[in-house]
Amino acid sequence: MTEPTDVPETELLRLDNQICFSVQAASRAFNGVYRTLLKDLGLTYPQYLVMLVLWEHGDLPVKQIGEYLRLDSGTLSPLLKRLEATGYVRRTRSTEDERSVTIRLTDTGAAMRGQALCVPRGILEASDLSAEEATTLHSLLLRVTGSLDAAANAPGAGAAAG
């Protein structure tokens, strides 16, 4: 692995050399393709992510969906309300703890799963990656995310350098 001290100072602050910018640019490009692929399903990308979680795990409390998607309830709640308004999910308040809301797929939402199979296939095709390259990229991104999460949560991570 290249150490930051091995890179000339003139290169350190170049935009094209920033990994985070490359990831952000790729994310924006992905979102453009997702927007097109999801249009026929009537879903936004964040709504699609919620549907993926529900198709995979079934009924879940909002809190757990938020944990899977790394979203807080303030972001997730309006998104879930819109999914409910479209008839894809149903929100049910817990009788034991009225602060807890469980999200369930409706029959329409469950049936949409088959239609959504074209989405990951379309993304793979648009990315011009082989299945093996996509798997490698996915693994690297998971590793980077884990490492960055650990660094952000390390003692003193918020302290100013100096």
UniProtKB/TrEMBL annotation:
<dbReference type="InterPro" id="IPR000835">
    <property type="entry name" value="HTH_MarR-typ"/>
</dbReference>
<dbReference type="InterPro" id="IPR036390">
    <property type="entry name" value="WH_DNA-bd_sf"/>
</dbReference>
<dbReference type="GO" id="GO:0005737">
    <property type="term" value="C:cytoplasm"/>
</dbReference>
<feature type="domain" description="HTH marR-type">
    <location>
        <begin position="16"/>
        <end position="146"/>
    </location>
</feature>
<dbReference type="GO" id="GO:0003677">
    <property type="term" value="F:DNA binding"/>
</dbReference>
<dbReference type="InterPro" id="IPR055166">
    <property type="entry name" value="Transc_reg_Sar_Rot_HTH"/>
</dbReference>
<keyword id="KW-0804">Transcription</keyword>
<keyword id="KW-0963">Cytoplasm</keyword>
<dbReference type="InterPro" id="IPR039422">
    <property type="entry name" value="MarR/SlyA-like"/>
</dbReference>
<keyword id="KW-0805">Transcription regulation</keyword>
<keyword id="KW-0238">DNA-binding</keyword>
<dbReference type="GO" id="GO:0003700">
    <property type="term" value="F:DNA-binding transcription factor activity"/>
</dbReference>
<protein>
    <submittedName>
        <fullName>MarR family transcriptional regulator</fullName>
    </submittedName>
</protein>
<dbReference type="InterPro" id="IPR036388">
    <property type="entry name" value="WH-like_DNA-bd_sf"/>
</dbReference>
<dbReference type="GO" id="GO:0006950">
    <property type="term" value="P:response to stress"/>
</dbReference>
<dbReference type="Pfam" id="PF22381">
    <property type="entry name" value="Staph_reg_Sar_Rot"/>
</dbReference>
